[in-house]
Design goal:
437 residues, alpha/beta, Aminopeptidase, Aminopeptidase i, Domain 2, 2 domains, nine-stranded mixed sheet, 10 helices, 26% strand, metallopeptidase activity, protease
C-alpha cells in the first residue's frame, strides 16, 4: 500500500492530466492494469480464467471491468466490488461542428451532462476524444486524439454591452457557447475534418491517411491539476468528479494481491443518465458476471455474498453558502470519505452498509463523514442505486468531499484522495466481507 499522500497525489495528478475524456481515462486505466500484469480479455472471445490471476475487459473505449479471482476463495464467496464512472460534465462537439462567422471559425457544441456553464468562459480550452475512421481495407478503426494545448476559448461579452451581466444573466446556450477556434486569413476556408486529419497524422505518424467518418470530441480545460492554499491543503482540477474515484479504485485493486475476489467497475454516461451499452443501467456488468458464474444459482450466491462500494464525489459545505447544506451534516475538505445517505434511495446506502464502511474506516484509522441533502432540496444520485438494483448486491455510496462540483475546475482536500484510497484498500484486504458471525 502506498504510504505517502504526496506521492499518491502525484499519481492522481498524472492520471487527471492524461485523461481529458472518458475514452482517455479508460485507456489510462488499461495501461496501468497491464503494468500490474493483469490480462486483457475481449467480449467477442471465449474466456479462460484461472484463480489467483487478474483480468480486465473494456467495452467501446468508455467502460471497464477489472477483477481478481482469489487463489484462496471461490466465486461463491462473493466479490469485494468498487464502482465509479469515467465521464464528466463538459461541452461536446456537434457532428457538423464547423461554424463560420467571418473572419472567425468556431465550433458548434452541445452540453454533455449538467456542467456549471459560467466557468467555461474565458478559459484556455483544448479538444480531445475519439475518431472513427475507415482504413484502406474498408474496416473501421478508432483513434484517440488530444490536441493537448490551448486551442479554443469562449470569450465573454464585455460588460459594456451587457450592464446586467453581474446580476444573474442567463446564458443563451445556442448562441453564447460556440468556442472560437481560428481566424480566417484567406479566401480558403479551413474544414474542421481537415484539421482533425492533420492532428491524427501528428499523433499516429506511422499510419496511412484515414478517412474520418465520425467523432466523439469534447472540450476541456487545459490547465493541469495542482495543489493550492497557504499550506497546499487543497487540490484543484477538472474532472475530479469522478476520475478521483477511478484512480482510487485503480490503485487499490492493483495493490490488492491475488488471495481474494475483487472487482472494479468503471462505467460511462453517468452524467446523462447511464442508459447506454457502457452505462451502469446497461448490461455490461451482467455480461461479465455471467462469465464469472455461468450457473444462475451460483451467480446469485456470489452476488449475495458480495458487497459494492459506489464511489462518487460528495458535496462539502461551501463557506460562502452554508445555508445550502444541512446544518447537522457539515462536510469539510480533508475530513475523510463521505457516506452519502438519502431516504428516497437516491443513494444506495442503508444502516447496515454504512455500518460496514465505518468498521472498514476504523480499521484503516481514517475519519468518516455523513452527508444528507437539505430536506427542502432535491438530491442528486449516482450509479450506486441502479447497480445495486440490477445486481441485487448490498451497496453503499461514498465519495471524497468536493467544492464546485460540475464546475470546469473542482476542489477537494489534499488528504482526501489518499484517505479514500486507504478505505478501499482495507476493503479489498478484508477477509469477512459482510462481517457475518
Amino acid at each position: 500500500m502506498t504510504t505517502n499522500f504526496v506521492e499518491y497525489n502525484d499519481s492522481l495528478f498524472r492520471y487527471l492530466d492524461n485523461s481529458p475524456t472518458a475514452f482517455h481515462a479508460v485507456a489510462e486505466l488499461r495501461q496501468q492494469l497491464l503494468k500490474a500484469h493483469m490480462t486483457e480479455l475481449f467480449e467477442h472471445e471465449r474466456w479462460q480464467l484461472d484463480k489467483g490471476k487478474g483480468y480486465f475487459v473494456i467495452r467501446e473505449n468508455g467502460a471497464l471491468v477489472a477483477f481478481i479471482l482469489g487463489s484462496k476463495e471461490d466465486v461463491s464467496n462473493g466479490f469485494r466490488m468498487v464502482a465509479s464512472h469515467s465521464d464528466s460534465p463538459c461541452l461536446q462537439l456537434k457532428p457538423r461542428a464547423d461554424v463560420h462567422s467571418p473572419p472567425y471559425l468556431q465550433l458548434g457544441v452541445e452540453i454533455y451532462g449538467g456542467p456549471l456553464l459560467n466557468p467555461w468562459f474565458d478559459r484556455d480550452l483544448s479538444l480531445a476524444g475519439r475518431l472513427c475512421c475507415v482504413d484502406a481495407t474498408n474496416n473501421l478503426v478508432d483513434y484517440l486524439i488530444d490536441f493537448n494545448r490551448p486551442l479554443l476559448t469562449i470569450p465573454s461579452l464585455a460588460i459594456h454591452f451587457d450592464r446586467e451581466a453581474n446580476n444573474g444573466r442567463a446564458i443563451d446556450k445556442q448562441k453564447a457557447l460556440p468556442p472560437l477556434l481560428a481566424q480566417i486569413l484567406s479566401d480558403q476556408l479551413p474544414q474542421f475534418h481537415e484539421i482533425l486529419s492533420v492532428q491524427l497524422l501528428k499523433q499516429y505518424p506511422g499510419i496511412k491517411l484515414q478517412t474520418i467518418l465520425g467523432f466523439d470530441l469534447f472540450c476541456y480545460d487545459h490547465q493541469k491539476a495542482t495543489t493550492l492554499g497557504l499550506n497546499n491543503e487543497f487540490i484543484a482540477s477538472g474532472r475530479l468528479d469522478n476520475l478521483l474515484s477511478c484512480h482510487t479504485a485503480l490503485q487499490a485493486i492493483t495493490e490488492a494481491g491475488t488471495d481474494r475476489n475483487s472487482l472494479f467497475l468503471c462505467t460511462n454516461h453517468e452524467e446523462n443518465g447511464s442508459t447506454s451499452t457502457t452505462g451502469a443501467n446497461g448490461a455490461f456488468i451482467d455480461a461479465v458476471f455471467s462469465r464469472l458464474a455461468p450457473d444462475p444459482e451460483l451467480r446469485q450466491i456470489s452476488l449475495r455474498n458480495s458487497f459494492l462500494i459506489s464511489i462518487d464525489n460528495a458535496h462539502a459545505v461551501h463557506p460562502n453558502f452554508r445555508d445550502k447544506s444541512d446544518s447537522g451534516h457539515d462536510i469539510i475538505l480533508n475530513g475523510g470519505p463521505v457516506i452519502k445517505i438519502n431516504a428516497n434511495q437516491r443513494y444506495a446506502t442503508n444502516s447496515r452498509s454504512a455500518s460496514l464502511f465505518k468498521l472498514l474506516a476504523a480499521e484503516a484509522e481514517i475519519p468518516v463523514q455523513e452527508f444528507v441533502m437539505r430536506t427542502d432540496m432535491p438530491c442528486g444520485s449516482t450509479i450506486g442505486p441502479m447497480t445495486a438494483a440490477r445486481l441485487g448486491v448490498e451497496t453503499i455510496d461514498v465519495g471524497a468531499p468536493t467544492l464546485g462540483m460540475h464546475s470546469i475546475r473542482e476542489l477537494t482536500g489534499s488528504n482526501d484522495p489518499y484517505l479514500l484510497y486507504k478505505a478501499i484498500s482495507t476493503f479489498f484486504a478484508t477477509e469477512n466481507i459482510h462481517r457475518r458471525g
